[in-house]
Design goal:
Chain lengths: 342, 342
DNA sequence: CTCCTTGCTCGAACCGGTTCGACACCTCGC
DNA sequence: GCGAGGTGTCGAACCGGTTCGAGCAAGGAG
């Protein structure tokens, strides 16, 4: 069942079998046929470990994401799926590694033990030791998200600043004056997660520009936290008429909170944010939102990574995406006391 | 950066370094210290491919699930997450393989090329060529789900028959007489997916036992299909007062359809089914459902697989789980014309 | 007819680990 | 004082591929 066995049965040397399979040297048509016949008979496939050892490539890429304590969001799911499918197109397998930090054992295994040819990192922080470490080592990697200094890096990222700002402008255009912002959980913000920071930034600046009165909140990644968060919002300022959220997992809870408070969406209260379309379409009314193109991002990340693996000296490349807001049914003109005066 | 380099710098042979690391033969304290010091200095980690080649184990398990066209359900996500975490506990990495059939290229890679020591299969069909093939090869694998002939196999499965029946009994106890069943998509049923078949079976038998009038439907794995399905249900029999669903992804659409039709849940219409708790809690009102213990199932599957890898001769083991129905807010007593006469 | 190229094949070395058998040295018991 | 037994180390072989250099035969050019 190894290459020597094939060689023996085909009456040739091991190297000839190897060349017949790889095509790196010419092999006579007759020999090739004979070898192929033996291979088909025995169902032989070359051992991946041996091949990896010999030519220094594993044909595997690592997908690194934080161990979220079984709290993966729908967006992460979409990324995983699209990365796996895109990698299959390039004949790469995908190894999952639940590592939040440079020092995690699983991360060390991937790199130190050379289990993968390259890595895709998710859930990037503004200052991210994983990204820095990989850059120093010149290890092929692509980030989904970008650090505070993304200039020469390899990454695919949403422009959360612009997206949050677009949500604000959308609401301001509809006449909303008092708007809340629902961010990812407190600990993620404190850890420096880039989407949480840039989203907050974009929201705050755009709101200031439009002269809105705002409050910002952090919210756990689940429905119960969403509901609690919404109660806090209405308690802190009952005149609030709209919110922007980056927190997909809290969405169901936010909606429930609004229903409990007797606020009809979108008549009494508008909701928008940054959410993958298949989740935006799950809630009722369907969410007007900047649709996260997870499938495209995963595919682009893989394409960049493969490119980088195959020519390691190339300069950094990246894609900054700003998907438009899809108008669905969760936002409407402001009514009542908060109608714009000017 | 390889073991020879370490040996040279420590002034010993390669085998001594290997024994110092593995502990399989005794090494003097002094030698061990010297070796460790060199290793620490250089940040050496043994190459995974070389090690896998030498001792025939990759310390990787494969997680095989169908390429759902980027339509992964929340339940699949939960499985993936829990499998990855459980595997990390046993020092295994997880390789994802999007393969629905025995013949898929990615599946062949995993097995033929010996990339993994064992595999966990998801989305099992009643007659599943992957399961049969692996059993014939005596390749260590554990299924999440079970085929039509599960007797000697290794698997972790929900008892969908019992769960669907429990949902029926719950509704019948509340007085519902006309109940619909919302299954996974048509093509999955036709392909023989076990959960769809056994769930349908359990539903149908229990309904007959309780003398209920039922209709059964297949429904796409997304909100729009769920909404369309609900419209069909009410069109086919407007007197329907409850439904049971196995289709988590359609849930949001089913709720939306009910809202559109002016049926209040749970006052006018009861909804229940088999859904992971975190998704059941996302919708409003929260779904009364048999909670899929995805985390536990993933962990048990990994535990079984590791056990099987480590002692290959052991007889088949399995876990059949029947989680209870969690009472939340989506079911209530039947009202109006469909109140039970007897 | 010879020389050179080209096509095809082989043996050997290598990738970076693990493991087996052998051996040198030391200690202990008699 | 000598053999038995244990400890620590080494060299060599092996896992299953890839790749390099060389050799041989056939064919074409001079």
């Amino acid at each position: 069942m190894n290459i020597g066995e094939i060689a023996k049965r085909a009456g040739v040397s091991r190297s000839t079998v190897s060349y017949a399979l790889s095509g790196k040297r010419s092999v006579s048509e007759e020999t090739r046929r004979k070898i192929q016949q033996v291979i088909d008979e025995l169902g032989y496939r070359p051992n991946a470990s041996a091949r990896a050892l010999a030519n220094g490539r594993t044909s595997t890429i690592g997908l690194v994401f934080p161990p979220a304590g079984n709290h993966y969001t729908g967006m992460q799911l979409d990324f995983i799926g699209s990365v796996v499918e895109a990698a299959a197109v390039h004949d790469y397998d995908v190894l999952l590694s639940p590592s939040g930090a440079d020092s995690d054992r699983s991360f060390q295994r991937l790199l130190g033990e050379r289990r993968v040819d390259g890595a895709i990192l998710m859930e990037i922080r503004l200052e991210d030791d994983r990204v820095e470490h990989l850059a120093e080592l010149d290890f092929p990697s692509v980030a989904i998200g970008r650090t505070a200094h993304p200039e020469n890096g390899w990454w695919v990222s949403l422009d959360h600043t612009a997206l949050a700002a677009a949500c604000v402008h959308h609401l301001a255009d509809l006449g909303h004056r008092r708007v809340a912002f629902v961010n990812r959980p407190e600990q993620l913000l404190q850890a420096g997660y880039e989407s949480a920071h840039r989203g907050l930034d974009g929201f705050t600046k755009a709101a200031a520009e439009r002269g809105l009165t705002v409050r910002t909140y952090c919210c756990g990644d689940d429905a119960a936290s969403g509901q609690a968060c919404l109660e806090r919002i209405l308690h802190d300022d009952p005149a609030t008429t709209a919110l922007v959220t980056l927190n997909e997992a809290a969405l169901g809870g936010l909606y429930r909170g609004l229903a409990r408070a007797g606020r009809h969406v979108p008549r009494d209260f508008s909701v928008t944010g940054v959410v993958a379309s298949r989740w935006a379409e799950t809630v009722t009314p369907q969410l007007t939102a900047a649709d996260v193109p997870a499938e495209e991002m995963g595919r682009r990340a893989v394409d960049l990574l493969v490119e980088r693996i195959e020519q390691p000296a190339a300069p950094g490349r990246h894609h900054l995406l700003t998907p438009p807001i899809s108008l669905r049914a969760s936002t409407g003109p402001a009514t009542g006391t908060s109608r714009p005066g000017t």
